Amino acid sequence: MQRDRLDFLDNLRGMAALYVLLFHVYRVLTPNLAPPPAMSPFIGFGYSGVWLFFAISAFSLSLTMPRHIATGMPLTSFAASRFFRIAPLFYVLIIYSTLHYCLTSGKPPEWGLIAGSISFLFNLFPSWSRSAVSGGWAIGTEVMFYAMFPLLYFFAKGIKTRLFIMFAGIVLYYIFANYFSPLISNVRLWERFETRSIVRFFPSFMMGLIAFDVYAVLKGSQQAKTFGSGALIAGMLLFAWQVSGGQGWGILHQVHVDSIAYALILLGAGLCQPRVLASRILSYYGRVSYSVYLWHIPMIVLIGPFLQSVYAIEAPQWLRFAAVSAIVLGLVTVVAQISYRVIERPVEEYGKRLIKQLSEARRLAAFRHGAE
Fold it and tell me: Domain-by-domain residue ranges, the chain?
């Protein structure tokens, strides 16, 4: 059962990674490599794949927290696990991005931005919110939630409590977005900070926690598949509505409506394990999704002139867009596979060994203390 749960999470991560990649094939380069009009609304909505990552992250953290508790030092184990999972590859991308910036601009980067990115504090400062890594703002948002998660896990248990916290977060964001802008005189700086802040996305993470709570209650019950199918259908219908031009609902920002759709899809996928989402390809991209996410924008930029030349070939628009998308996906797949094997896996395994050693040392010390 554990493997099945991991598979469905990997499948959804794979979907999110490929969706964001497809969006950036379209939007990163100037002029944009526009998709055919019929696909434009769907592909243009691909930025929201990050919201799905956020919901999956909260769900997955809840799923794995008992493992950290079993070590006898849950906070240390959790923090070390998260650091070794995200920091090493992110630091590699900081180095790559810094070198690329120096070579292409002929000047050094903003060192405050580099320091903010290395410390993962850039989500807290308006001038650093874009991150030193393209697309890396989402990692800063993730880290802010990591800092909150143990409190939410241990002291905010239960669906009702977490629903209240989620709605409180929505109200807080409404106040933040509408009344805090005068604190920053630079309009563009404020917009960039506000749209990437943990305040904006905290409710999205909470929806992932609530999806896990409902999943934990219903899994294995006779109603699980029926409820899961309903949640999956409702989520997909809401997703289709948002793609077609849906907006926010009252105090609910569009981001939060999008996140409701993704949380429903996540819950439905967990409860009914639909075959349509069971794919070795999606599972593979789910496993390497972190590398795919961090490398895909730098790779698009690196081969940008070549992509522009391919897109300029006289051919139907759908064929040109499919060609550049296939080129990007092929390159990113190779780079992500190397990155996953050489950086992600070894460092993550090292982190697990370190946590195990610390846990065993703690138990041995406790045993010796008891023997005395």
Answer: 2-371
